TrEMBL record:
Pfam families: FAD_binding_4 (PF01565). InterPro entries: FAD-bd_PCMH, FAD-bd_PCMH-like_sf, FAD-bd_PCMH_sub2, FAD-linked_Oxase-like_C, Oxid_FAD_bind_N. Residues 41-214 form the FAD-binding PCMH-type domain. PANTHER family: D-2-HYDROXYGLUTARATE DEHYDROGENASE (PTHR11748:SF119), D-LACTATE DEHYDROGENASE (PTHR11748). This is FAD-binding oxidoreductase. It comes from Mesorhizobium zhangyense. Keywords: FAD, Flavoprotein. One of its GO terms (biological process) is lactate catabolic process.
Amino acid sequence: MNISALKRELDGMKIEDNPAIAQQKSRDFYWYSPVLKRQLENVTADLVVSPKNQAEVVRVLAACHRLGIPVTPRGAGTGNYGQAMPLSGGVVLSLAEMSEITTIASGRVICGPGAILADIDRATRTHSGQELRLHPSTYNTASIGGFIAGGSGGVGSINFGGLRDFGNVIRLRVVTMEAEPKVLDLTGEDLHKVTHAYGTNGIIVEVEMPLTASYDWIDVIVGFDSFMGAARYGNALGCQDGLLTKLITPIAAPVPQDYFKRHQRFFRSGQSICLVMVAPHSLDAFLAFTRREGGEVVMNAASMSEEEKKGLPPTFELAWNHTTLRALRVDPAMTYLQSLYPFPNQLALVEKMDAMFPGEVFSHLEFVRFDGNITCFGLPLVKFTTEERLDEIIRLHEENGCPIFNPHRYTLEEGGMKQTDDIQLAFKREADPQGLLNPGKMIAWENPDYDYRSGKTFLFKGLQRAG
Ligand SMILES: Cc1cc2nc3c(=O)[nH]c(=O)nc-3n(C[C@H](O)[C@H](O)[C@H](O)COP(=O)(O)OP(=O)(O)OC[C@H]3O[C@@H](n4cnc5c(N)ncnc54)[C@H](O)[C@@H]3O)c2cc1C
């Protein structure tokens, strides 16, 4: 790989070749998974390039195309599956500096891919009382481009569904990796070409996102004697069309007691909980509903003093993948899975899976609205023993009708639906004919005949260079 020639071509741009910094910028939260930790530990880029604008992105992609150097985009590096890790080395393209918010209008915001989600909301709230429809629990650190290319949903999904649902992204401007890179504006059905594609088929250089009315969301935690009590309550709350919530998260004991260090004082021993974010105008009705359902409000931020709230992270930083992070901080032997409990049997499936692995798997649900129905995802915590046992737990979920989006794999297909995404593959043929964008992440490109049902793990040949 002719990195010296590339450096000459990029003269005047911000580049970083210090090996320690290049390695740091080559990592994400892959270490959440003991499997990925083992596989990806040695992955590192040769160069980190930080373009300031679209013209510089075009320049980098044209130069790397000419020299045959791989390019892996990076937002804030909070992805979980080695998504932003350059398996074949080359360039890490940091979009962090392209963070300008250029337009805020009724129902929409236009900004650079590097804009941090919380910064976007700060601007849109001040400007016009609006906020993003959904955000990951990494709201305070993650970029909008990284969320669109690597994320799936999060806080707000109880109202709006997932990122790839129609209408949750308005427009993306994407640069292709060709001799003369093209700049394309994608809308409507075409958005599926690049959303959740890990940057394997284009670099997002501008985003246009829909906005909704903003509120000073109130954090509430409701306690239950049993986990199924919390799960049934979460489901019923999600179905209350008149109550505006943004987060509904049942979590089984003893996770809150053992891992939510700053909140421990609120929980009785053995109590399972449901985390909720509720709009201020819904609070009274929400409390009445909770009383009727037999929930015990153990924390209500609306009735706490500033002194009492001091040091407490927002509730969403106990939810989604922050639950796993908090467990890992206390017990490095913990890991997790991502499951779906399909509508309409979600509660029966939750009950069955919750009972199946006592002391080994701890239930954590996130309620969402999908295609008009309330159902839930699971991000259960798993006490890790061996990779074989982890695979067995996954198999048992799938055999019982709960699909697993395996967070212990670095490819799009194994982490997703275990099938080729023909739309993304076709777009990669157009937009990255040499296969230089984030290599190794799309199996359909690397090995079109790969059998996803083989039970084996796909091992990208290009990874060997780093290993
Ligand atoms: C504690 C924790 C909690 C999390 N909670 C959630 C959650 O609630 N919901 C959720 O969906 N995810 C969650 N995640 C995963 C991750 O935080 C989100 O997906 C986040 O939005 C990623 O943003 P980022 O800027 O860090 O992206 P990165 O990690 O930098 O990148 C993510 C992917 O997008 C690609 N990419 C980045 N920028 C671009 C670009 N401009 N063009 C093309 N491709 C690009 C990268 O190559 C990579 O494949 C969580 C992760 C952690 C560690």
